[in-house]
Design brief:
The chain is mainly β and about 90 residues long. It has 1 helix and 8 strands, in the order αββββββββ. It is globular and about 30 Å long. The N terminus is likely disordered.
């Protein structure tokens, strides 16, 4: 138990208080799909208009958007999709 607390405090310190994870927001008026490939596993997400998903792609991944565009992510980006185009709003540290 003490180890878990120490690890959590360490992670908060090295990440500046926030744990790294990719955040995706759909700013379109239609459903958008993104496929995340990380650690040789593939997971598809359907994101409703106005919806935001987070806590994905913790250590880096490849994000494949509905139009087939592949973007390598470090896992700390904030990405919005508008007019079916992914826009990186916050770059990885």
């Amino acid at each position: 138990m003490k180890f878990a607390v120490v690890l959590a405090l360490f992670l908060l310190q090295i990440t500046g208080g926030e744990l790294a994870a990719l955040t995706l927001k759909n700013q379109d008026t239609t459903l958008t799909t993104v496929t995340i490939i990380a650690d040789d596993e593939e997971q598809s997400y359907e994101i409703a208009p106005g919806e935001t998903i987070s806590d994905i792609c913790m250590k880096g991944c490849i994000a494949i958007f509905g139009d087939g565009e592949e973007i390598e992510m470090k896992g700390t980006e904030a990405v919005s999709v508008e007019d079916s185009i992914p826009n990186i709003e916050k770059q990885a540290r």
